[in-house]
Amino acid sequence: MIKSERSMEAIRMKERLEAIRERALAQINETDSLDKLNDIRVAFLGKKGELTEVLKGMKEVAPEDRPKVGQIVNETRQAIEEVLDKAKTELAAKKRELQLKSEVIDVTLPSKRDELGHKHPNTLALEEIQKIFIGMGYEVVDGPEVEYDYYNFEALNIPANHPAKDEQDTFYINDKIVLRTQTSPVQARVMEKGKLPIRMISPGRVYRADEVDATHSPCFHQVEGLVIDKGITFADLKGTLAEFAKELFGPDTKVKFRPHHFPFTEPSAEMDVSCFKCGGKGCRFCKGEGWIEILGCGMVHPHVFELCGIDKEEYTGFAFGVGLERVALLKYEIDDMRLLYENDIRFIKQF
Questions:
Q1: How many domains does the chain have?
Q2: Domain that residue 227 falls in
Q3: Each residue of 26-51: pLDDT tens digit?
Q4: Count of C-beta atoms within a 10 Å radius of residue 68
Q5: pLDDT for residue 204
């Protein structure tokens, strides 16, 4: 009785395998997707697929029938795999054909051009300034924009109660850290190292609490310079800046110095250049004065030397600072500073 039941189990398994084969082939023939084809493979041939479930019932088959049933299982698997592989090849070919049709390249169409940017007026002005001073033997030095109050003020002869500290409307992070209001702190850091002589410029971004208008911004750029050596005089300062002005604005440019006050220099001055539009005769560009204010300068204050550890009896020096935006506005005849920050490529491409 048991043998008869096991023989019947073998027959039932053969029938199941035939049904599985027919269903698998029917589903393969009906599918039109490679993803669906993979789902069919998993459903019938995977570790938890229908053929695997059939094999788990082999223990119910009579021992003498197991080889035959196993052979049928393998034949079924092979038949399904062959049809799957064939269908996969055909579907992949159809997909590739559709892709080729949809991605046809018309070689007669004009090619796409890469849109290149353009150097900003500030960048152009800075590169020209750096080129001039590097040609004079200066080095370009960078420094932190988030600076200690000490380097931004105290090391430059601006103590806590100095009125200049209020005039600059500083952005404070806390009572000891500020957004630098000038690039002079870089000069203080270089002086502190004590490697003399010094010939440097320090360009960079600075911050002051100014209202935005045609000539002001809370974030702008400065280029400050410093020279320290034995025997440096105001004549060296005048000669250096006169040469700088001629290189920047033209060989006929003249300069004049007006007394001024800066805490970190003594004596101090503001430098004007002759109007490069009218040659000093007076025009709309220079407001009829023939001169244009361009920068502040002076001899380094002896107390700054003391604060930075430099012997004021042996060394002297001069410093100067120019607003980069001011140079760009003058040189390229831009009448509104805000245009520099709008990044309109139509505006920038003019320079």
A1: 2
A2: 121-348
A3: 887 878 777 787 887 777 777 777 77
A4: 13
A5: 94
